[in-house]
């Protein structure tokens, strides 16, 4: 004979005793099972990521002469991350500035020549009208004026070209300092002090902890509801909740999972939250009718959940139920085992004592 059979018999007897119905005293406090309207939530696994994350690169070929930050260092916005050797670039700027000074002197001379030639051309023209000078003199004066105008225009064009060269040289000089585009934390350094950097070479990677977002993948059938959802909430391990702000839907689905990526911006400056953190992101997508009872009425016996039900005939019985989520104000969702209008005992201990007492009376 299997030794487990006696234990099965005992368990069955125990179940029958617990589920037997007896008369209950009138002082037992009960509540009615009701159906209430609650916001309908959809919850997804989420990962926190930085909105601002970038890798800065070199735009010139130069030697690294200064490294001001390393991995895990906090970098304020506008700080100089690193510097390159800049003597050559300073010399180029100085050379062009000197050329501009010479061009400006030539421009002043050309302007004076232009004024002089214009005055001479006017004087000769007046003399020609009075027939005091020949046509050749007038032609020469006009030719001299055209030459001085051309010279003046050439000098002005050269001056503009020099200025453009100076602007370019100053821009290249600015490339000798790598400036932090935003405040954040260095996550990777890809260059060493004294190394010769080349254009396009990656130098340093960083992320901003100021602006973060939660990212989730939403099934295709829910995308319309999520687009119009309100009050997205990020729930972290430990129960901490952070209200989301802007919702961004990436307008294409993954070809394998047919899910859409949703990004929810979190409040700027949220403390003790870091990229890579796992959480649950919930969206309110409408309303739903939920059957609820008070959490205090629930009895938990190992893996079995139940309540003491008081029938209209004042018969008290223990009934197993299937529970859902815990809702606000200490209410618990009932998925199966109870119907709206039934009454359950608010104090399970008192109900158990009454059930035991009445069972003893009915079985002397």
Concise synopsis of the structure shown:
The chain has 364 residues and is of the alpha+beta class.
Give structural notes.
The protein has 364 residues and is of the alpha+beta class. It has 4 domains: 21-38 and 288-362, conserved putative lor/sdh protein from methanococcus maripaludis s2 fold (Beta Barrel); 43-52 and 209-287, Elongation Factor Tu (Ef-tu), domain 3 (Beta Barrel); 53-86 and 179-208, OB fold (Dihydrolipoamide Acetyltransferase, E2P) (Beta Barrel), CATH 2.40.50.100; 87-175. Helices cover 33% and strands 38% of the residues. It has 5 helices and 22 strands. The protein has helices at residues 4-19, 87-129, 135-174, 223-227, 348-362; strands at 22-23, 30-32, 34-50, 53-57, 62-67, 74-75, 80-84, 177-179, 184-189, 196-197, 202-207, 212-219, 230-236, 241-243, 247-253, 259-265, 278-294, 299-301, 304-310, 315-327, 331-336, 343-345. The strands form 3 sheets. Strands 1, 2, 3, 12, 13, 14, 15, 16, 17, 18, 19, 20, 21 and 22 form a 14-stranded antiparallel sheet that branches. The chain has a 4-stranded antiparallel sheet with strand order 4-11-9-6, with no helix packed on it. It has a 4-stranded antiparallel sheet with strand order 8-7-5-10, with no helix packed on it. Helix 2 runs antiparallel to helix 3. It is elongated. The model is unreliable at 1-25 (pLDDT under 50).
